[in-house]
Amino acid sequence: MMQRFSCPFCGPRDETEFFYGGEAGNERPEPAEETTAKQWARYLHMENNVKGPAREIWVHLTCGEFFVMERDTVTHEVHASEAFRGDRT
Ligand SMILES: [Zn+2]
């Protein structure tokens, strides 16, 4: 089933124009020199696999902009799309 996602810059487009960039808020462990191998592996390979509302980073390939999409991973209902500013909220 084709979904329509909303780019904060371009508006609603077909899902084929978008690329999934990962979960928002998966931060690099700091400081790196005090981070255990286990923490690094977790950072590099694990995702939380949220069930329900999740914040995800997406790229709209047509305009090349990153944005955060709030989406329910169970129902695939999109709640919000906002420009990605690289902040840590
Ligand atoms: Zn766009």
From TrEMBL:
Q: What Pfam families does this protein map onto? A: SoxD
* UniProt-listed InterPro entries: SoxD, SoxD_sf
Q: Under what name is this protein listed?
A: Sarcosine oxidase subunit delta
Q: Which organism is it from?
A: Fodinicurvata halophila
